[in-house]
Amino acid sequence: MLDRITGPQITEFFKAGFEHTAWRLETRRAYGVASETEEFQAWLRGEPAEPDPQRPWLATMRALRSAGKRVERVRIIDDPPTDYQRWLLSDVADSIDAGEDIRYLARADAGLLPHAPHSDFWLFDSKTIGIFAFDGDRSLGMRLTDDPDQVLKGCQIRDAAWHFARPATVFIPL
User: Fold this and answer.
1) Where is each DUF6879 domain found (predicted)?
2) How many Å apart are CA 128 and CA 119, to the nearest integer?
């Protein structure tokens, strides 16, 4: 298997593309996601965010949790965090409430991870890996593969990152 999927296809993949677990590593300081630009710019101007519990991603996370599936991610974070990272932190509680387990790993500690990960990826059921490609901050999609060597590296990175990362609640006020 070697397929590249993009934006909406990635969200669709979550509905039937894995059986039990999805795990994400986020390595970038910012992401150029067109659907987020206006909200991010408003946040930078200090405007209050409009809560929207029906956002498609949150609805997908709730459905996955109801189906007994687990979604986890580790975000590598700078010290001090970039504006984009601070914006993600300001909204992380909604994702956690929807069912994601999100943790943070200091960029200074990212060297503890095996295979020096330089790219974001999703790992599905420890048997398929989706490796992202980027043009600047803009995602070009992810390449899905079940290559055993790539999957093994992803599993090793996941296990180490999960061990060293701290829960999002360490970074946000309760």
Assistant:
1) 10-171
2) 16
